[in-house]
Structure formats: C-alpha cells, structure tokens
Design a protein that fits this description.
This is MarR family transcriptional regulator. Keywords: DNA-binding, Transcription, Transcription regulation. The chain is mostly helical. The protein has a single domain, classed as Orthogonal Bundle (Arc Repressor Mutant, subunit A). Helix content is about 60%, strand content about 5%. The protein is built from six helices and two strands. A two-stranded antiparallel ribbon has the order 1-2.
Length: about 150
C-alpha cells in the first residue's frame, strides 16, 4: 500500500540522515538542518514564518529552535516592530554548521534513491512533489510556499 511504503521510505531516509550525521560527528536532526538552512537564506524571519517554510507545527518548531539556541547556533531577538515577536538569525557558529552539514545532507539524500536510474530519480521526485502539493492542505503543518521577497521580516 502506498501509505505504508511512504512511511517505510521516511524511516529509511531518517536512518540514512542520522547515520550520515553520526559518521561526520554532528549531532543534528533533519528538521534542525532545515531550520538552519532556511535561516541562512532568510535571516530575521519569525518562528511562525520559519515553521511554515519547513512544514512544521508550532510546538515542534519551538522545540527545534530551543535546541538550536541551546547549541549556540541560532539567536532570538525581540522584533523592533512587534515586541511580542522574536526574529531569528544564525550565529557565526550556526552559519559554519550549515556549511559543514550541507555536503553530508547532499550525500545522504542521494543515498535515499540508490538503485534508481537518473531518469527514475527525477520521475520519483516529480511525482512525490505532485502528490505533496496536491494534499498540502490536509497536513497538520502545511508547507507555506513563499517567494524570497514575500518572506515577512520581523
């Protein structure tokens, strides 16, 4: 059944990511990497915007940011325009971590589709994107697709 296969493939993907990070001596999860990578491209965004950009719910993104801040990789500052909001940015250590992680992530992501030809990989990704976009609104944490200049800066 497709749902079972998707769940199994997710388990395998998480396992490959964890193995890759462990072998590189990095203690990081894929949601933590996603948050760091988005913050690298969009410094100063708020936590809710970040959550939408990586399709995580608010409680989950709160924990991710808490752990990244505790590791000294992300800083939170009070927004100059809304004192209730916190803007997020990478620390220098966070920027270094993204660069250190990127080749490991690229390698582990390519391993997920080992055994497929290049054409099959492209087709798989195309079909997976089509299905996830079609059902995005059914997710408990829908992906918010924004163009870079549309990202709200807090």
């Amino acid at each position: 059944m497709p749902g079972h296969l998707i769940r199994r493939l997710h388990q395998i993907s998480v396992s490959l990511f964890s193995e890759g990070m462990k072998s590189a001596g990095i203690d990081m999860t894929s949601p933590q990497f996603a948050a760091l990578a988005i913050l690298e491209e969009n410094p100063g965004i708020d936590q809710a915007t970040l959550a939408g950009m990586i399709a995580l719910d608010r409680p989950t993104i709160g924990g991710v940011i808490e752990r990244l801040a505790a590791k000294g990789l992300v800083e939170r500052k009070t927004s100059p325009t809304d004192r209730r909001a916190k803007s997020l940015a990478l620390t220098p250590a966070g920027a270094e971590m993204v660069q250190r992680m990127r080749p490991v992530v690229v390698e582990t992501q390519s391993r997920v589709l080992d055994g497929l030809s290049e054409a099959e990989k492209e087709k798989f990704i195309s079909l997976a994107e089509k299905i996830t976009l079609l059902h995005n609104d059914r997710s408990r944490a829908p992906l918010v697709i924004r163009k870079k200049k549309e990202v709200s800066q807090v």
